[in-house]
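Chain A, query sequence.
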Amino acid sequence: MARQIEAQRQGEIKAADDKRAKNLRLIAEVEAANKIALAKKAELRQRELDEEQKIVRYNKDKIEREVALALEERRLKEEKEKEVARLREMQEKAADRQSEIDALRAKRAFEEGERGSRRKEVAEKEKMVRQANELEVARKKQFMEREGTLAN
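Chain A, predicted structure.
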C-alpha cells in the first residue's frame, strides 16, 4: 500500500509536472500568438501611417502643382495684358502720327489753295490792267482817228 500511495503520489507529481509543462507550453503558445498578433497590429499601424503619409505627400504635391499652375497662368495673363497694352500704345502712336500727317497735308493743301487763289487774283488784276490799258490805247487811237477825221 505504501508503494501504491508512493506510486500514486509519484503519479500525481508527474501529472502535476505534466500539467505545469502543458500550462507553460500553452502560455508560451499564447505569448507567441500575442507577439505575432502585436507584430501584425504594429505592421498594420505602420502601413496605415505610411498610407497617410503618402496621402499627405500626394495632397501637398497636388497643392504645389496647383499653385505653380495658378502662378504660371497669372504670369501668362499678365504677359498678355502687357502685350495688349504695348500693341494698343503702338496703335495709338500710329494713329497720332497719321493724324499729324493728315493735319500737315490739310494745312499744305489749304496753303496751296491760298497761293492758287492769290495767283488767280493777281492774274485777274493783271488781266484787268491789261484790258484797261488796251481799252485806253483803243480809246486814244479812236480819239486820234476822230481828231484826224475832224481835222481833215
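Helices lie at 2-151. DSSP finds one helix and no strands in the chain.
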